[in-house]
Amino acid sequence: MSKRILVTGGAKGVGGAIVRALATNGYDVDFTYRSSGAAALELAKQLSEETGRQINATELDLSDRAALDAFCEKLQEETWYGFIHNAGQPYDALAAMMAQDKAEAAMQVNFWSLTQIVKSVIRSMMRAREGRIAVMGSVTALHGSQGNAAYAASKGAMLSYCRTLAVESAKRGITVNYIAPGFIDTDMMASYAAYRENMEKQIPAGRFAKTEEVAALCAFLMAETSAYINGAYLPIDGGLTAMTGVHR
Q1: Which of 89, 82, 247 is nearest to 175 (CA)?
Q2: Which residue spans traverse the membrane (predicted)?
């Protein structure tokens, strides 16, 4: 029987690459999408045909609490081996200028939906005494970035939560790890096109990450051989956070 993994935000970009990597590695995958319905359904159909695995796409807006409640009730009825929280909502504003409703919306999608889904899937992992949880965080959780106060706070909350959950669930054979990407080459970076060259100069690797590189790390963390990696903060940023201070 194939192991089953849930992925939030899996229609395209990093999420799509994650779903593809998992399916290719022999997992059955359920993934959510919010607005990219056509892309999600096409990805599920394509991967099901290519890999023979069960790939299911479900429409879900993580900011809709009623819809999330109903979704989580169904999750509790299923058996899960892994969960990857990839869905996220950005919000850029200076700390002194944050709009409360937008800041709370980012916290709901990035953090509160994570805690609610974990409660729903971790019970079957505990019964099986085996499970893998990984969250897509950000380097901003530990490093200040102007204009990212609300977003960084939500990602910081995710990190603290994951470290605590890792300690609490380790004896049940469950691992919980935090992935901290830097800049990834996706459609989300299109608005920064004018600044890209200068941004890449500040990254030791000299480029943005490929979605496949981030997905490969996710797939590795789901594997049985990663059982002793737990509570980790794993940057995948081309050396960006290793470089500190003022440089010539």
Answers
A1: 82
A2: none
Specify the pLDDT at position 144: 80
Q: Which amino acid is at 156?
A: G
Number of domains into which the chain is organized: 1
The SS3 assignment for 240 reads: coil
What are the structure tokens assigned to 125, written together? 């992992």
Range of the domain at 119: 4-236
Burial 107-132 (b: 16+ CB within 10 A, else e): bbbbbbbbebbbebbbebbeeeebbb
Catalytic site residues?
151
Give a yes or no: residue 242 inside a domain.
no
Residue 242: pLDDT band by 50, 70, 90 thresholds? confident
Bridge partners (DSSP) listed for residue 5: 29, 82
pLDDT for res 224: 95
Burial class (CB in 10 A: 0-12, 13-18, 19+), 17: buried
Q: Which one-letter amino acid corresponds to residue 217?
A: L
